Protein backbone atom coordinates (compact mmCIF):
# COMPACT_ATOMS: atom_id res chain seq x y z
CA UNK A 1 0.00 0.00 0.00
CA UNK A 2 1.32 3.42 -0.82
CA UNK A 3 0.98 6.46 1.40
CA UNK A 4 -1.49 7.98 -1.05
CA UNK A 5 -3.67 4.86 -1.09
CA UNK A 6 -3.75 4.75 2.72
CA UNK A 7 -4.55 8.45 2.94
CA UNK A 8 -7.34 8.11 0.39
CA UNK A 9 -8.90 5.11 2.18
CA UNK A 10 -8.69 6.92 5.52
CA UNK A 11 -10.57 9.88 4.09
CA UNK A 12 -13.20 7.66 2.52
CA UNK A 13 -13.76 6.02 5.89
CA UNK A 14 -14.11 9.41 7.57
CA UNK A 15 -16.63 10.47 4.95
CA UNK A 16 -18.68 7.31 5.40
CA UNK A 17 -18.69 7.72 9.16
CA UNK A 18 -19.66 11.37 8.89
CA UNK A 19 -22.59 10.57 6.62
CA UNK A 20 -24.18 9.14 9.81
CA UNK A 21 -25.72 6.22 8.01
CA UNK A 22 -23.35 3.59 9.28
CA UNK A 23 -24.64 1.09 11.85
CA UNK A 24 -22.63 1.12 15.10
CA UNK A 25 -20.97 -2.26 14.65
CA UNK A 26 -19.77 -1.29 11.22
CA UNK A 27 -18.76 2.17 12.44
CA UNK A 28 -16.51 0.61 15.07
CA UNK A 29 -14.93 -1.68 12.52
CA UNK A 30 -14.35 1.29 10.23
CA UNK A 31 -12.85 3.27 13.10
CA UNK A 32 -10.42 0.48 13.84
CA UNK A 33 -9.41 0.27 10.20
CA UNK A 34 -9.06 4.05 10.09
CA UNK A 35 -6.73 4.06 13.09
CA UNK A 36 -4.61 1.42 11.39
CA UNK A 37 -4.42 3.55 8.25
CA UNK A 38 -3.58 6.65 10.26
CA UNK A 39 -0.71 4.87 12.00
CA UNK A 40 0.63 3.74 8.64
CA UNK A 41 0.45 7.29 7.21
CA UNK A 42 2.06 8.80 10.28
CA UNK A 43 4.92 6.34 10.20
CA UNK A 44 5.52 7.19 6.56
CA UNK A 45 5.46 10.92 7.30
CA UNK A 46 7.84 10.55 10.23
CA UNK A 47 10.20 8.54 8.04
CA UNK A 48 9.96 11.19 5.30
CA UNK A 49 10.71 13.94 7.79
CA UNK A 50 13.74 12.02 9.05
CA UNK A 51 14.94 11.70 5.48
CA UNK A 52 14.50 15.43 4.89
CA UNK A 53 16.54 16.26 7.99
CA UNK A 54 19.24 13.86 6.90
CA UNK A 55 19.43 15.34 3.40
CA UNK A 56 19.35 18.87 4.74
CA UNK A 57 22.23 18.22 7.14
CA UNK A 58 24.17 16.49 4.38
CA UNK A 59 23.57 19.49 2.07
CA UNK A 60 24.68 21.79 4.88
CA UNK A 61 27.97 19.95 5.35
CA UNK A 62 28.57 19.85 1.56
CA UNK A 63 28.35 23.66 1.26
CA UNK A 64 31.60 25.13 -0.05
CA UNK B 1 68.67 28.02 -84.24
CA UNK B 2 71.78 26.01 -84.73
CA UNK B 3 74.28 26.24 -81.91
CA UNK B 4 77.84 25.67 -82.96
CA UNK B 5 80.08 23.61 -80.75
CA UNK B 6 83.81 23.21 -80.94
CA UNK B 7 84.99 19.64 -80.75
CA UNK B 8 88.03 18.64 -78.75
CA UNK B 9 88.41 14.96 -79.50
CA UNK B 10 85.18 13.40 -78.31
CA UNK B 11 84.21 16.42 -76.15
CA UNK B 12 81.76 19.01 -77.50
CA UNK B 13 82.34 22.44 -76.00
CA UNK B 14 80.16 25.54 -76.38
CA UNK B 15 81.23 29.09 -76.15
CA UNK B 16 79.39 31.15 -73.50
CA UNK B 17 77.60 33.08 -76.20
CA UNK B 18 76.55 29.92 -78.00
CA UNK B 19 75.36 28.35 -74.72
CA UNK B 20 73.34 31.41 -73.86
CA UNK B 21 71.89 31.61 -77.31
CA UNK B 22 70.93 27.95 -77.11
CA UNK B 23 69.22 28.30 -73.71
CA UNK B 24 67.59 31.52 -74.85
CA UNK B 25 66.09 29.91 -77.94
CA UNK B 26 64.84 27.00 -75.81
CA UNK B 27 63.24 29.38 -73.26
CA UNK B 28 61.61 31.30 -76.09
CA UNK B 29 59.49 28.26 -76.81
CA UNK B 30 57.79 28.47 -73.39
CA UNK B 31 54.29 29.98 -73.36
CA UNK B 32 53.33 33.45 -72.21
CA UNK B 33 51.81 33.42 -68.69
CA UNK B 34 50.53 35.66 -65.87
CA UNK B 35 52.73 35.82 -62.75
CA UNK B 36 51.68 37.42 -59.49
CA UNK B 37 54.07 39.01 -57.01
CA UNK B 38 55.21 42.11 -55.20
CA UNK B 39 57.31 44.74 -56.97
CA UNK B 40 60.67 45.51 -55.32
CA UNK B 41 63.90 47.18 -56.45
CA UNK B 42 62.32 49.05 -59.34
CA UNK B 43 65.08 50.53 -61.51
CA UNK B 44 64.28 52.98 -64.24
CA UNK B 45 66.59 55.23 -66.15
CA UNK B 46 66.01 57.48 -69.10
CA UNK B 47 69.21 56.05 -70.57
CA UNK B 48 67.84 52.50 -70.59
CA UNK B 49 65.48 51.03 -73.10
CA UNK B 50 63.89 48.87 -70.38
CA UNK B 51 62.88 49.23 -66.79
CA UNK B 52 63.82 46.51 -64.34
CA UNK B 53 62.35 45.30 -61.09
CA UNK B 54 62.29 42.22 -58.95
CA UNK B 55 59.04 40.38 -58.48
CA UNK B 56 58.86 38.82 -55.05
CA UNK B 57 56.58 36.03 -53.87
CA UNK B 58 55.06 37.37 -50.63
CA UNK B 59 54.48 33.86 -49.37
CA UNK B 60 57.92 32.28 -49.60
CA UNK B 61 60.16 35.13 -50.70
CA UNK B 62 61.13 33.63 -54.07
CA UNK B 63 62.39 36.27 -56.45
CA UNK B 64 62.18 36.77 -60.18
CA UNK B 65 63.84 39.52 -62.26
CA UNK B 66 61.50 41.31 -64.62
CA UNK B 67 62.22 43.66 -67.51
CA UNK B 68 59.77 45.70 -69.48
CA UNK B 69 60.11 48.09 -72.37
CA UNK B 70 60.41 51.56 -70.85
CA UNK B 71 57.90 53.19 -73.19
CA UNK B 72 55.34 50.54 -72.46
CA UNK B 73 55.94 50.76 -68.71
CA UNK B 74 55.64 54.55 -68.65
CA UNK B 75 52.46 54.45 -70.70
CA UNK B 76 50.77 52.46 -67.93
CA UNK B 77 51.36 55.29 -65.42
CA UNK B 78 51.20 52.82 -62.58
CA UNK B 79 53.49 54.65 -60.16
CA UNK B 80 54.34 51.42 -58.43
CA UNK B 81 55.58 51.68 -54.88
CA UNK B 82 57.80 49.09 -53.31
CA UNK B 83 55.68 46.10 -52.30
CA UNK B 84 52.86 46.80 -54.73
CA UNK B 85 51.09 43.61 -55.72
CA UNK B 86 51.04 43.14 -59.51
CA UNK B 87 50.12 40.66 -62.17
CA UNK B 88 52.76 40.47 -64.90
CA UNK B 89 51.96 39.02 -68.30
CA UNK B 90 55.12 37.85 -70.01
CA UNK B 91 57.41 35.05 -70.98
CA UNK B 92 60.72 33.76 -69.66
CA UNK B 93 63.78 35.21 -71.27
CA UNK B 94 67.53 34.96 -70.94
CA UNK B 95 69.50 38.18 -71.08
CA UNK B 96 72.21 36.68 -73.19
CA UNK B 97 74.90 39.30 -72.58
CA UNK B 98 74.91 38.43 -68.85
CA UNK B 99 73.37 34.97 -68.84
CA UNK B 100 70.61 36.25 -66.58
CA UNK B 101 67.22 34.62 -66.52
CA UNK B 102 64.25 36.94 -66.21
CA UNK B 103 60.65 37.52 -67.13
CA UNK B 104 60.09 39.75 -70.09
CA UNK B 105 56.90 41.65 -69.30
CA UNK B 106 54.49 42.36 -72.11
CA UNK B 107 51.85 43.76 -69.84
CA UNK B 108 51.56 44.70 -66.19
CA UNK B 109 48.51 45.21 -63.96
CA UNK B 110 48.25 46.32 -60.43
CA UNK B 111 46.51 43.67 -58.34
CA UNK B 112 45.32 45.50 -55.29
CA UNK B 113 42.85 45.48 -52.45
CA UNK B 114 39.94 45.77 -54.84
CA UNK B 115 40.93 42.59 -56.60
CA UNK B 116 41.34 40.76 -53.33
CA UNK B 117 37.96 41.99 -52.26
CA UNK B 118 36.42 40.89 -55.54
CA UNK B 119 37.99 37.43 -55.24
CA UNK B 120 36.77 37.25 -51.63
CA UNK B 121 33.30 38.32 -52.69
CA UNK B 122 33.19 35.61 -55.34
CA UNK B 123 34.23 32.99 -52.80
CA UNK B 124 31.68 34.30 -50.31
CA UNK B 125 28.88 34.08 -52.87
CA UNK B 126 29.94 30.56 -53.83
CA UNK B 127 30.12 29.28 -50.24
CA UNK B 128 26.88 31.03 -49.28
CA UNK B 129 25.28 29.30 -52.28
CA UNK B 130 26.36 25.97 -50.80
CA UNK B 131 24.66 26.99 -47.54
CA UNK B 132 27.87 27.10 -45.51
CA UNK B 133 26.83 30.29 -43.72
CA UNK B 134 23.15 29.37 -43.26
CA UNK B 135 21.60 30.15 -39.88
CA UNK B 136 20.09 26.65 -39.59
CA UNK B 137 23.60 25.18 -39.68
CA UNK B 138 24.61 27.06 -36.55
CA UNK B 139 24.89 24.85 -33.50
CA UNK B 140 24.47 26.15 -29.98
CA UNK B 141 27.47 26.05 -27.67
CA UNK B 142 27.64 23.44 -24.90
CA UNK B 143 26.54 24.84 -21.54
CA UNK B 144 29.40 23.30 -19.64
CA UNK B 145 32.21 22.14 -21.96
CA UNK B 146 34.42 19.41 -20.50
CA UNK B 147 37.28 20.51 -22.73
CA UNK B 148 37.74 23.62 -24.83
CA UNK B 149 40.01 23.78 -27.88
CA UNK B 150 41.80 27.03 -28.68
CA UNK B 151 43.47 27.69 -32.03
CA UNK B 152 45.67 30.75 -31.84
CA UNK B 153 49.07 32.15 -32.71
CA UNK B 154 51.94 31.32 -30.39
CA UNK B 155 52.48 33.97 -27.77
CA UNK B 156 49.58 35.95 -29.16
CA UNK B 157 47.70 38.55 -27.15
CA UNK B 158 44.58 36.86 -28.49
CA UNK B 159 45.54 33.65 -26.70
CA UNK B 160 46.07 35.46 -23.42
CA UNK B 161 42.74 37.30 -23.78
CA UNK B 162 40.78 34.12 -24.41
CA UNK B 163 42.44 32.21 -21.57
CA UNK B 164 41.97 35.10 -19.12
CA UNK B 165 38.31 35.47 -20.02
CA UNK B 166 37.71 31.72 -19.65
CA UNK B 167 39.49 31.27 -16.31
CA UNK B 168 37.95 34.41 -14.80
CA UNK B 169 34.44 33.13 -15.42
CA UNK B 170 35.11 29.46 -14.93
CA UNK B 171 38.37 28.72 -13.05
CA UNK B 172 38.25 24.92 -13.41
CA UNK B 173 38.00 25.10 -17.23
CA UNK B 174 40.06 22.62 -19.21
CA UNK B 175 41.56 24.28 -22.28
CA UNK B 176 43.62 22.57 -24.94
CA UNK B 177 45.65 25.14 -26.88
CA UNK B 178 46.88 24.54 -30.42
CA UNK B 179 49.42 27.15 -31.35
CA UNK B 180 49.80 27.68 -35.04
CA UNK B 181 50.61 30.19 -37.75
CA UNK B 182 47.89 32.80 -37.95
CA UNK B 183 49.45 34.88 -40.69
CA UNK B 184 51.22 34.31 -43.95
CA UNK B 185 51.07 31.63 -46.61
CA UNK B 186 51.12 28.66 -44.25
CA UNK B 187 48.46 29.97 -41.88
CA UNK B 188 45.35 28.57 -43.59
CA UNK B 189 46.68 25.02 -43.82
CA UNK B 190 48.11 25.20 -40.30
CA UNK B 191 44.82 26.35 -38.79
CA UNK B 192 42.98 23.56 -40.61
CA UNK B 193 45.48 21.02 -39.22
CA UNK B 194 45.16 22.49 -35.73
CA UNK B 195 41.36 22.29 -35.87
CA UNK B 196 41.46 18.64 -36.90
CA UNK B 197 44.09 17.80 -34.27
CA UNK B 198 41.96 19.36 -31.50
CA UNK B 199 38.90 17.44 -32.63
CA UNK B 200 40.90 14.21 -32.63
CA UNK B 201 42.02 14.94 -29.08
CA UNK B 202 38.39 15.38 -28.11
CA UNK B 203 37.04 18.84 -27.34
CA UNK B 204 33.43 20.04 -26.97
CA UNK B 205 33.94 23.41 -28.59
CA UNK B 206 36.72 25.22 -30.45
CA UNK B 207 37.68 28.88 -30.30
CA UNK B 208 39.63 30.27 -33.25
CA UNK B 209 41.20 33.51 -32.09
CA UNK B 210 43.39 36.02 -33.79
CA UNK B 211 43.87 39.65 -32.94
CA UNK B 212 43.45 42.50 -35.35
CA UNK B 213 45.67 42.89 -38.39
CA UNK B 214 45.79 44.31 -41.85
CA UNK B 215 43.37 43.11 -44.45
CA UNK B 216 46.07 40.93 -45.94
CA UNK B 217 47.08 39.55 -42.53
CA UNK B 218 43.55 38.27 -42.08
CA UNK B 219 43.28 36.80 -45.58
CA UNK B 220 44.14 33.23 -44.46
CA UNK B 221 40.94 33.29 -42.40
CA UNK B 222 39.00 33.69 -45.62
CA UNK B 223 40.86 30.85 -47.30
CA UNK B 224 38.43 28.36 -48.78
CA UNK B 225 40.09 25.36 -47.09
CA UNK B 226 39.95 27.03 -43.70
CA UNK B 227 36.37 28.21 -44.10
CA UNK B 228 35.25 24.72 -45.13
CA UNK B 229 37.13 23.14 -42.23
CA UNK B 230 35.37 25.47 -39.79
CA UNK B 231 31.97 24.68 -41.31
CA UNK B 232 32.69 20.93 -41.24
CA UNK B 233 34.13 20.90 -37.72
CA UNK B 234 32.33 18.15 -35.73
CA UNK B 235 32.01 20.43 -32.67
CA UNK B 236 30.77 24.04 -32.52
CA UNK B 237 33.30 26.72 -33.45
CA UNK B 238 33.53 30.24 -32.05
CA UNK B 239 35.41 32.57 -34.35
CA UNK B 240 37.11 35.69 -33.02
CA UNK B 241 39.28 36.90 -35.84
CA UNK B 242 40.32 40.51 -36.28
CA UNK B 243 38.29 43.42 -35.01
CA UNK B 244 34.57 44.11 -35.07
CA UNK B 245 34.62 45.62 -38.58
CA UNK B 246 36.58 42.74 -40.15
CA UNK B 247 34.46 39.89 -41.33
CA UNK B 248 36.71 37.12 -42.54
CA UNK B 249 34.71 34.29 -44.09
CA UNK B 250 35.58 31.96 -41.22
CA UNK B 251 33.51 34.25 -38.96
CA UNK B 252 30.53 33.58 -41.21
CA UNK B 253 31.09 29.82 -41.28
CA UNK B 254 31.57 29.58 -37.51
CA UNK B 255 28.63 28.68 -35.27
CA UNK B 256 29.13 31.79 -33.18
CA UNK B 257 31.00 34.94 -34.08
CA UNK B 258 32.69 36.84 -31.27
CA UNK B 259 33.74 40.44 -31.75
CA UNK B 260 36.96 39.95 -29.77
CA UNK B 261 38.95 37.05 -28.29
CA UNK B 262 37.81 38.09 -24.78
CA UNK B 263 34.18 37.88 -25.82
CA UNK B 264 34.86 34.44 -27.32
CA UNK B 265 36.31 33.31 -23.99
CA UNK B 266 33.26 34.54 -22.09
CA UNK B 267 30.94 32.82 -24.55
CA UNK B 268 32.32 29.30 -24.20
CA UNK B 269 32.07 28.91 -20.42
CA UNK B 270 29.34 29.68 -17.90
CA UNK B 271 29.94 32.02 -14.97
CA UNK B 272 30.85 29.60 -12.17
CA UNK B 273 29.86 31.95 -9.33
CA UNK B 274 26.47 32.56 -10.91
CA UNK B 275 26.04 28.86 -11.59
CA UNK B 276 26.78 27.96 -7.96
CA UNK B 277 24.41 30.61 -6.70
CA UNK B 278 21.63 29.32 -8.91
CA UNK B 279 22.35 25.77 -7.83
CA UNK B 280 22.24 26.81 -4.17
CA UNK B 281 18.91 28.53 -4.67
CA UNK B 282 17.52 25.46 -6.40
CA UNK B 283 18.68 23.24 -3.53
CA UNK B 284 17.10 25.51 -0.92
CA UNK B 285 13.89 25.49 -2.92
CA UNK B 286 14.03 21.73 -3.06
CA UNK B 287 14.26 21.47 0.71
CA UNK B 288 11.50 24.04 1.26
CA UNK B 289 9.30 22.20 -1.21
CA UNK B 290 9.87 18.84 0.47
CA UNK B 291 9.11 20.25 3.93
CA UNK B 292 6.02 22.05 2.69
CA UNK B 293 4.73 18.87 1.02
CA UNK B 294 5.36 16.90 4.18
CA UNK B 295 3.55 19.43 6.36
CA UNK B 296 0.57 19.43 4.01
CA UNK B 297 0.29 15.64 4.14
CA UNK B 298 0.67 15.66 7.89
CA UNK B 299 -2.13 18.19 8.31
CA UNK B 300 -4.28 16.12 6.01
CA UNK B 301 -3.63 12.89 7.92
CA UNK B 302 -4.10 14.54 11.32
CA UNK B 303 -7.31 16.17 10.17
CA UNK B 304 -8.71 12.87 8.96
CA UNK B 305 -7.61 11.20 12.16
CA UNK B 306 -9.36 13.79 14.30
CA UNK B 307 -12.60 13.33 12.40
CA UNK B 308 -12.21 9.56 12.34
CA UNK B 309 -13.15 8.96 15.99
CA UNK B 310 -15.76 11.69 16.20
CA UNK B 311 -18.56 9.91 14.35
CA UNK B 312 -18.32 6.53 16.12
CA UNK B 313 -18.11 8.30 19.50
CA UNK B 314 -21.19 10.28 18.59
CA UNK B 315 -22.95 7.08 17.55
CA UNK B 316 -22.16 5.51 20.91
CA UNK B 317 -23.37 8.63 22.73
CA UNK B 318 -26.54 8.67 20.72
CA UNK B 319 -27.07 4.95 21.40
CA UNK B 320 -26.55 5.53 25.08
CA UNK B 321 -29.04 8.38 25.16
CA UNK B 322 -31.58 6.30 23.27
CA UNK B 323 -31.07 3.46 25.74
CA UNK B 324 -31.57 5.77 28.72
CA UNK B 325 -34.69 7.08 27.13
CA UNK B 326 -36.02 3.56 26.62
CA UNK B 327 -35.14 2.54 30.15
CA UNK B 328 -36.99 5.59 31.40
CA UNK B 329 -40.03 4.71 29.45
CA UNK B 330 -39.81 1.12 30.63
CA UNK B 331 -39.65 2.27 34.18
CA UNK B 332 -42.54 4.64 33.71
CA UNK B 333 -44.73 1.79 32.54
CA UNK B 334 -44.13 -0.38 35.65
CA UNK B 335 -47.01 -0.10 38.23
CA UNK B 336 -44.54 0.44 41.06
CA UNK B 337 -43.72 3.89 39.75
CA UNK B 338 -47.42 4.71 39.63
CA UNK B 339 -47.86 3.57 43.21
CA UNK B 340 -44.93 5.79 44.23
CA UNK B 341 -46.81 8.75 42.87
CA UNK B 342 -49.65 7.99 45.41
CA UNK B 343 -51.86 5.65 43.44
CA UNK B 344 -53.21 2.44 45.02
CA UNK B 345 -54.24 -0.94 43.64
CA UNK B 346 -57.46 -2.36 45.07
CA UNK B 347 -57.98 -6.07 44.89
CA UNK B 348 -61.17 -7.98 45.82
CA UNK B 349 -61.00 -11.73 45.96
CA UNK B 350 -57.49 -11.71 44.41
CA UNK B 351 -58.50 -9.76 41.31
CA UNK B 352 -57.89 -6.11 40.64
CA UNK B 353 -60.92 -3.91 41.03
CA UNK B 354 -61.27 -1.81 37.88
CA UNK B 355 -64.86 -0.56 38.43
CA UNK B 356 -66.87 0.61 41.50
CA UNK B 357 -69.78 -1.41 40.20
CA UNK B 358 -67.89 -4.59 41.02
CA UNK B 359 -68.15 -3.85 44.76
CA UNK B 360 -70.87 -4.13 47.45
CA UNK B 361 -70.97 -2.07 50.71
CA UNK B 362 -69.47 -4.12 53.54
CA UNK B 363 -67.23 -6.11 51.15
CA UNK B 364 -63.60 -6.65 52.23
CA UNK B 365 -60.87 -5.46 49.90
CA UNK B 366 -57.04 -5.55 49.91
CA UNK B 367 -55.34 -2.20 49.17
CA UNK B 368 -51.76 -2.20 47.84
CA UNK B 369 -49.51 0.88 48.18
CA UNK B 370 -45.89 1.43 47.05
CA UNK B 371 -44.43 0.41 50.39
CA UNK B 372 -46.97 -2.21 51.51
CA UNK B 373 -50.77 -2.64 51.91
CA UNK B 374 -53.71 -2.92 54.24
CA UNK B 375 -57.13 -4.58 54.46
CA UNK B 376 -60.35 -2.46 54.36
CA UNK B 377 -64.12 -2.70 54.21
CA UNK B 378 -66.31 -0.81 51.69
CA UNK B 379 -68.56 1.80 53.43
CA UNK B 380 -70.62 3.01 50.54
CA UNK B 381 -70.68 2.99 46.71
CA UNK B 382 -70.69 6.33 44.95
How would you describe this structure to a colleague?
The complex is a heterodimer of chains A (64) and B (382). By secondary structure, chain A is mainly α. Helix content of chain A is 86%, strand content 0%. Chain A starts with a helix and ends with a helix. The model of chain A has no long low-confidence stretch (mean pLDDT 84). Chain B has three domains: 5-111, OB fold (Dihydrolipoamide Acetyltransferase, E2P) (Beta Barrel), CATH 2.40.50.140; 133-273, Rossmann fold; 336-377, no CATH class. In chain B, 40% of the residues lie in helices and 26% in strands. Chain B has helices at residues 16-27, 70-76, 113-129, 157-169, 187-201, 224-232, 249-253, 261-268, 272-333, 335-340; strands spanning 5-8, 11-14, 33-43, 50-56, 63-69, 85-95, 100-110, 148-153, 175-180, 205-210, 237-241, 256-257, 345-348, 351-352, 364-369, 372-377. In chain B, a hairpin with a 2-residue loop joins strand 13 and strand 14 (351-352). In chain B, helix 4 packs parallel to helix 8 and helix 5 (187-201) runs parallel beside helix 6. The chains are: A mainly alpha (64), B alpha/beta (382). Chains A and B meet through helix 1 and helix 2 of A and helix 9 of B.
Amino acid sequence: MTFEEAQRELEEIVQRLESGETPLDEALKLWERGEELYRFCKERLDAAEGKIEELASRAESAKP
Amino acid sequence: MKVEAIEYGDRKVYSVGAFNRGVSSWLARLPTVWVEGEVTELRRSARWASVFFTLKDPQDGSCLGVSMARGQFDALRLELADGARVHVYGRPELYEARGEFRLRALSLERFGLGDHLAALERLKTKLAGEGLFAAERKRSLPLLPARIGLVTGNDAAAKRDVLTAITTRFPPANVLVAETYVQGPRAAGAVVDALRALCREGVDVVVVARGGGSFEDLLPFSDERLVRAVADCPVPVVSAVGHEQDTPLCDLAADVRASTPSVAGRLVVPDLAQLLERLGRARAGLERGARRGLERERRRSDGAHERLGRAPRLLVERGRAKLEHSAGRLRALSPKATLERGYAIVRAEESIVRSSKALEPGERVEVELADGGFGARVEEIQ
